């Protein structure tokens, strides 16, 4: 037994020696890495030499691919709109060398070419996707280059994807040649559509109310009518931007109370001029036990900033009224009547501000959300015009003149979008008309919306071959013949007579309108996913669901949150202006596509945001 134990021990020792011999010795690279890991050598800040350092992070099982790294860097530059020269910065190259010792420095020309390759590859993918969509709605937005005084147009496409999600993609940034007339803009848009091969898919074009845009959309409508039939005879083709209208209305209001706004602005500035005045004001706030804690000085170029300043100051109106007793040098006294005007103006501007918040709470809002908000604007102006106060009636008259031009062109689309919201259908539309118009006018407008809705639906039925155009007035005829062919022996008897009596003329739209409204259990109206509802009912409403999502994807605004509140136009920064038009387009379009691909939100640059000074009141 003892001999067996000794033999087994000897065998185990031989196995250990054999295994140790099989072990691979560390390579000279691994040995060098272990040695250098003990210390890191940093290049002096003033050094102009290449960074020859060893990375502390090395994966010996993965081969470094410089070509792949260039593609990734191109994605990064496009996503965040970095200048191409960033890859030549010394700190950036030091960082990359520390991350991977095999990284090789890239020039700005090389990365620019790589960005163009990425742009072309992504464009090809998007072109394939656009072939499968039914309808696409466009928004056009003008940008100006202050350096070269050039005009550019950003063309964005809005559509529904195969998952019934609303999608937005920038399709082009095109240079508009002088003299920047409507026909020049129309030609630029048409060329862009031909490049994407979607000229026969365009449903609507949304633009602001400029005279050149009216001419542009009119010419484009005529050109596209030659290429293919526009839905509803193109009567819904031109959509006027509601954000642009709100800007005009807000400026109308603020111009009427310019002197009051100047006094409020001077009052807030006076309080902020020294610690003494701020302390005096704070003591009064504490004595009156007010809950508000801040004042705001506005940036006059942004009307929402002015609205915030007025609404904040309004909370301290009692303090301002008594502040002169404590501070004799305060000379911007605002009267009680003026504060009442400020209060009413803030109520109106709050409605306008809520519309901008739609795009803040919902990244890509469907048209029904804007429809509700624009109806609120119409109602506010109607009530204001009935005010007993002469000042507000005069203000309302001026604003209604601006708003009615928009309402005349866009109200039909607004109400169609509302009807296609299963939570309201025609109920909300009828209630709204009855509050704003006389009984006769309300009935006429309701009938117009209904007739338009059915006419568009009939075109969709023909489009999807549900019935021929000659059968558009009798949807159920085909179903009767289909049922009867299995009962040919009964065609002339009681069975056929019974089938003839059955009400089979109802279309999907008829059935949708006759059914009760959808009861939504969501606490917020913005939480309801209307596209998801239509997706879940697509088998029940095979044609109507397609029509609904096409209409609901129409953008009623051409701008997004921060731009919505700007009183001025959009300006291209100096870096983009210095690039060639093709390169500029690649950066704008490619950046948009990649941000959506990676789920990255564009960060607004500081100069694009309103400048507000907040005063803390303890």
Break the fold down into its secondary structure elements and pairings:
Elements (H helix, E strand, L loop, with lengths): L1 H21 L5 H9 L29 H15 L9 H10 L8 H23 L5 E10 L4 E11 L5 E11 L5 H15 L5 E6 L3 H17 L10 E3 L1 H15 L1 H14 L3 H13 L6 E4 L5 H12 L2 H10 L9 H26 L5 H19 L4 H30 L5 H12 L2 H25 L13 H8 L9 H8 L6 H7 L15 H7 L7 H9 L8 H4 L5 E2 L2 H4 L3 H18 L14 E4 L2
Parallel strand pairs: 1-4, 1-7, 4-5
Antiparallel strand pairs: 1-2, 2-3, 6-8
Helix pairs in contact: 3-5, 3-25, 5-25, 6-7, 8-13, 8-15, 9-11, 10-12, 11-13, 13-14, 14-15, 16-17
Fold and architecture overview:
Residues 1-10 have a biased composition (Basic and acidic residues). GO terms for molecular function: DNA binding; protein dimerization activity; zinc ion binding. InterPro entries: hAT-like_transposase_RNase-H (IPR025525), HATC_C_dom (IPR008906), RNaseH-like_sf (IPR012337), ZnF_BED_domain_contain (IPR052035). With 618 residues, the protein is α/β, with parallel strands linked by helices. It has 25 helices and 8 strands. Strands 1, 2, 3, 4, 5 and 7 form a 6-stranded mixed sheet that branches. Strands 6-8 form a two-stranded antiparallel ribbon. Strand 4, helix 7 and strand 5 (238-240) form a beta-alpha-beta unit.
Short descriptors:
single chain, 618 residues, alpha/beta, 6-stranded mixed β-sheet, two-stranded antiparallel sheet, 57% helix, globular, zinc, zinc ion binding, metal-binding, RNaseH-like_sf, ZnF_BED_domain_contain
Multimer state? single chain
Radius of gyration: 33 Å
Instruction: Please count the helical segments.
Output: 25
Class by SSE composition:
alpha/beta
GO cellular component, one term: nucleus
Organism: Aristolochia fimbriata (White veined hardy Dutchman's pipe vine)
GO molecular function: DNA binding; protein dimerization activity; zinc ion binding
Keywords: DNA-binding, Metal-binding, Nucleus, Zinc, Zinc-finger
